[in-house]
Amino acid sequence: QVQLVESGGGSVEDGGSLRLSCEWTTRTSSSYCLGWFRQAPGKEREGVAAVDFDGSISYENSVRGRFTISRDNAKNTLYLQMNSLKPEDTGIYYCAAHAHWGCSLATGPYDYWGQGTQVTVSS
After folding, report:
1. Which of 48, 51, 61, 89 maximizes the CB count within 10 A of its CB?
2. What is the DSSP letter of 9?
3. Which one-letter DSSP state was computed for residue 64?
């Protein structure tokens, strides 16, 4: 069982930056894949970035070069640094975790989800 709590959302103008954080708590010693997902109004939830316990990283094409995912296992915290934000980045951002093999941007394998934090980018 993993509990996830996101923070750091807000409203910025086009071209601005935000850093999201996600603290996780668990009673197990499992190695987790951690991911950031977002959901815009009227759209399906999509994967943004993921980082495995060994440090391997995946990004969705539209955010590559603008967003940076990182994890601090000593602090049990996942981060998403978002630069050069665009209005199309607006949505609710969720962090998620799973302990299965692989670490992709597909939502299916993720068993644990935070409640989400709103990111709004205005033009």
Report:
1. 48
2. -
3. B
